[in-house]
């Protein structure tokens, strides 16, 4: 088979489409013939040499894919060869075939094209696990999403609205904010021109955001705490603004606030399986009835993954950039 390899860390040109051995599904795994994968920021970090796959995972980048089951490993039940699926991965999505733990498989939701299903697993599992399983967003509360036009952001808007929450977003252009509004965002903040702390306070009559989903990390840490409502919850899922920041513990105490920081890739298999099962139970029906949908900016041939990485690094996209295997 062919897959994207990274012989040496570097820029997008470090991604090489090469012939590699086929993966063999181990105990509890299935072999998926990949139709499409999707680009995530974690893939860019891996390409740059900053985010190695966990032990035992595929060295090829790619944290999600869609395709058809080609073979079942020992001990797998409930799935059959030919089933159309999408999957959460620890690596291996930028390839024509990949081995997946059965607990990380999802059926393609009703009404979703097989290719576009590749845009779902990583973003849905990230949003559901952080916003709902950890931060416990409730109906009537306000969620602030940084990077509202990203793959994570576009999914967070839809899931929060489906749950009866009010949604605020930050983005850097009017086009991106308009797209967020089209998905249901109520409060639109241009972070290039506006202070999100002031804007969220103004929009909530001084109360602040009950939950903040943050992809920036250090750069926004102090302002995120100031933007929280009393009993607010800050969920950090990225470090695009740096890894080390200064926390005003007094301000956090005054808010009776909570900060969580999680990632999916290196979690134990049973934890990822539990998140995937929750997504199938709670989110797949919302997709089937049209309340939630994948947002895809464009599709790029997988062999041209370097082009897709450039698009994502330039932040000119809205939603997900897919890599089509054939």
Automatic annotation (TrEMBL):
Record keyword Oxidoreductase present: yes
Limits of the Enoyl reductase (ER) domain: 10-323
UniProt keyword list: NADP, Oxidoreductase
Record Pfam families: ADH_N, ADH_zinc_N
Domain of life where this protein originates: Bacteria
CDD domains: p53_inducible_oxidoreductase (cd05276)
NCBIfam families according to UniProt: quinone_pig3
Protein name per Swiss-Prot or TrEMBL: NAD(P)H-quinone oxidoreductase
Originating organism: Streptomyces andamanensis
């Amino acid at each position: 088979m062919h897959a994207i390899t990274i012989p040496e860390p570097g820029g997008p040109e470090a991604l090489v489409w090469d012939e590699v051995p086929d993966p063999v599904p181990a105990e509890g795994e299935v072999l998926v013939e990949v139709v499409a994968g999707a680009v995530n920021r974690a893939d860019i970090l891996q390409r740059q040499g900053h985010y190695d796959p966990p032990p035992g995972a595929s060295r090829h980048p790619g944290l999600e894919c869609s395709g058809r089951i080609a073979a079942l490993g020992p001990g797998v039940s409930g799935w059959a060869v030919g089933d159309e699926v999408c999957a959460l991965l620890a690596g291996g999505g930028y390839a024509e075939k990949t081995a997946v733990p059965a607990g990380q498989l999802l059926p393609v939701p009703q009404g979703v094209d097989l290719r576009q299903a590749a845009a779902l697993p990583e973003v849905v599992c990230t949003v559901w696990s952080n916003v709902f399983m950890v931060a416990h967003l409730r109906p009537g509360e306000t969620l602030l999403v940084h990077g509202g036009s990203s793959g994570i952001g576009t999914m967070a808007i839809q899931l929060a609205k489906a749950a009866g929450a009010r949604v605020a977003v930050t983005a850097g252009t009017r086009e991106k904010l308009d797209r967020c509004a089209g998905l249901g965002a109520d409060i639109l903040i241009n972070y290039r021109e506006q202070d999100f702390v002031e804007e969220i306070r103004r929009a909530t009559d001084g109360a602040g955001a009950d939950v903040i989903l943050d992809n920036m990390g250090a750069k926004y840490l102090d302002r995120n705490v100031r933007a929280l409502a009393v009993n607010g919850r800050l969920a950090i899922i990225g470090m695009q603004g740096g890894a080390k920041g200064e926390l005003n513990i007094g301000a956090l105490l005054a808010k009776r606030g909570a900060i969580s920081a999680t990632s999916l890739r290196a979690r134990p298999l049973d934890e990822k399986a539990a998140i995937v099962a929750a997504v199938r139970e709670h989110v797949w029906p919302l997709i089937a009835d049209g309340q939630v949908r994948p947002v895809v900016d464009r599709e790029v041939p997988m062999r041209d993954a370097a082009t897709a990485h450039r698009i994502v690094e330039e932040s000119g996209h809205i939603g997900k950039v897919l890599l089509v295997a054939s």
